[in-house]
Design a protein that fits this description.
Layout: H1 13-21, E1 23-24, E2 27-28, H2 33-43, E3 46-52, E4 66-71, H3 74-84, E5 89-94, E6 106-107, E7 110-111, H4 119-137, E8 138-148, H5 153-164, E9 169-176, E10 191-198, E11 207-209, E12 217-218, E13 224-229, E14 231-232, E15 245-246, E16 252-253, H6 259-266, E17 276-277, H7 281-289, E18 293-298, E19 301-309, E20 314-316, E21 320-321, H8 326-336, H9 349-357, E22 365-368, H10 375-387, E23 392-397, H11 403-417, E24 418-420, E25 426-428, E26 433-443, H12 448-457, H13 460-467, E27 471-475, E28 479-483, E29 487-492, H14 498-508, E30 514-520, H15 529-535, E31 542-546, H16 548-559
Helix pairs in contact: 3-4, 3-13, 3-16, 4-5, 9-10, 10-11
Length: 561
């Protein structure tokens, strides 16, 4: 049904009931035909798969993680990842279109402008399907960061509360993107937001070490310290912490510097949070005797401080980020592309590094399915270089305006292999490995056996991604063998036979470690009994049937939303 009339008094009962059933977040949710067309376009009459582009692969060190760059619609890729990475991703960062109405959001092959009646509904429908799939990819201790601005912040918060659970909302991180515009119509907008959700309460966030540079003073024993004010207004008022302190000249000092307010508090006239000292009188006298209390006279008034010593303590990171800006990102991009303006509005590397590093796992798998210029991949490579981590990134982007082939891929290649800035400075490569994939499709064939055959022919790359094994060591007609430092994987893509299994067994016997075989079968319930007997030839090999599990996972994914 397509609802275009905005005067509800003129609507039929059927139209009004339809609207009530589809009312969500204060919006009429997905009631026009564009939404239906978009869903059918994305689901299509074909199954999405992934196809390798080996000429774009980069290999510098087989001992390092293999990162992935996937060119294609992220809805299709997220669907395939339900098979390859379900419950496997540690960190997701995305910077989706903000839906400003300024040709930044395409829906059903058309830009959505500010005057579009269904502007917010279309954006939420677009995001909902992708975020539902993304949640399934996260580990139980995983976390997702979503950049957004004022245009869709409120709607996105409600959507995420529904998908991830209101109790799993972690924080709204406020990011100072730059100086704002002096010609803004009303207010100069300097900030954006990063909505942060965990999948479950198992998520562990890193904490910040106290920066030693803040402890500039040194005592007689050579210990670093800083002076901290002894009184506070923001503490819960406690009578035992409200007392006068004698200054060096014999005058009395009161919390908040007011004798009058001190006596009012003593008579019971105080706020829940009011002025008092941070420590009891007994603790004050103890620290004073140890030489850890400092008096200073500032503008004719005595103030009391205590020495706060550097103890390498940790505290939670703040939800305000102002140490980098979008201007820094523009400079990074220009340095990589010989001063050419190849991409606007990319987030700075330092910002993404900070977000990824909030997660406690230094070997995290990091996914960005709105990868754009590839900042997330750049950030992962830098973090690994800095702390010795083994994080792996997965970048997904379409190739609109050649963003994948002409910006994202060249950027990652330069960061891995090294490059020279426009000023002639040579930047050493960070190292790393990259596999490049594109989305491909298998038509939904009415002939089930033919469909299974077609899926098997195109599933090898998907299985390599699933098992993280990319080094091809044997390529025969009935099977292929891949290995990694951790395991060996064989993919058997034709009707099994004793002779071929015997040959496969002999080849697998040459390898140590875990071994897994993906074996073709028409049986949707698993391996046929006659083939199971053949499989007894294989020793110490795990066997998984294909392709029914892949098909079932894709069917489930394409129905979401």
């Amino acid at each position: 049904m397509e609802i275009k009339v905005q005067d509800y008094e003129k609507m039929s009962k059927e139209e009004l009931v339809y609207i009530l059933k589809n009312l969500k977040y204060g919006l009429i949710w997905s009631v026009n035909e564009n939404t239906k067309e978009q869903f059918e376009k994305e689901s299509g009459n074909a199954y999405p798969v992934l196809k390798g582009v080996p000429e774009r692969d980069i290999l510098t060190d087989k001992e390092k993680p293999t990162n992935l760059l996937i060119e294609g619609d992220n809805y299709h890729v997220l669907s395939v990842m339900q098979y390859t990475h379900r419950n496997s991703i540690d960190v997701i960062y995305i910077d989706p279109p903000y839906n400003t109405g300024n040709k930044d959001f395409v829906y059903n092959d058309r830009f959505v402008d500010k005057e579009d009646t269904w502007r917010h509904s279309k954006w939420l429908s677009f995001m909902s399907k992708r975020l539902k799939l993304a949640r399934e990819l996260l580990k139980d201790d995983g976390v997702i960061f979503i950049s957004i601005d004022d245009n869709e912040f409120a709607q996105l918060k409600l959507l995420c509360d529904e998908i991830f659970g209101e109790d799993n909302f972690v924080a709204n991180i406020i990011y100072k993107k730059g100086g704002g515009k002096s010609d803004s119509k009303y207010l100069s907008i300097k900030y954006e937001y990063i909505l942060t959700y965990r999948k479950t309460p198992l998520t562990i966030f890193k904490k910040a070490k106290s920066p030693i540079k803040n402890y500039k003073l040194i005592d007689e024993q050579g210990r670093r310290y800083a002076l901290a004010g002894f009184d506070r207004q923001g503490l819960d008022y406690t009578l035992s912490l409200d007392y006068p302190i004698e200054a060096p000249d014999g005058t009395l000092i009161y919390p908040g510097k007011s004798e009058e307010l001190y006596f009012k508090r003593q008579q019971g006239h105080y706020q829940k949070k009011d002025w008092c000292w941070t420590l009891s009188k007994k603790e004050f006298e103890k620290r004073k005797s140890e030489g850890n209390i400092v008096f200073k006279k500032i503008k004719g008034e005595w103030r009391v401080y205590y020495k706060s010593y550097y103890k390498d303590k940790v505290t939670p990171f703040e939800n305000f980020i102002d140490f980098t800006s979008n201007q820094a990102s523009a400079k990074e991009i220009k340095n990589l592309f010989n001063n050419k303006k190849v991409f606007e509005y990319a987030k700075p590397v330092d910002l993404i590094k900070h977000l990824i590093n909030l997660h406690a796992n230094n070997d995290a798998i990091v996914l960005d399915f709105f990868a754009g210029s590839g900042t997330t991949g750049h950030a992962v490579l830098e973090l690994n270089k800095e702390d010795g981590g083994n994080r792996q990134f997965i970048l997904v982007t379409n190739n609109e305006n050649n963003i994948c082939t002409d910006v994202c891929y060249p950027r990652i290649k330069k960061v891995i292999e090294g490059y020279t800035t426009p000023k002639g400075k040579k930047i050493e490569g960070l190292g790393g490995n990259l596999k490049y994939y594109k989305t491909d499709f298998v038509p939904k064939n009415a002939n089930t056996d033919q469909l299974m055959n077609d899926l098997v022919k195109k599933c090898t790359d998907i299985l390599c991604i699933k098992e993280n094994t990319f080094d091809l060591v044997s390529d025969t007609r009935p099977y292929k063998i891949f290995k990694s430092p951790q395991k060996v994987m064989a993919v058997y893509t034709s009707v099994p036979s004793y002779a071929n299994f015997q040959k496969l067994n002999d080849e697998l016997a040459r390898f140590d470690g875990k071994k897994i075989l993906y074996c073709f079968t028409f049986n949707p319930l698993g391996i046929d009994e006659e083939h199971l007997e053949m499989l007894n030839i294989l020793k110490d090999v795990e066997v998984e049937p294909i392709p029914h599990q892949l098909k079932n996972m894709l069917d489930e994914a394409l129905k979401k939303g």
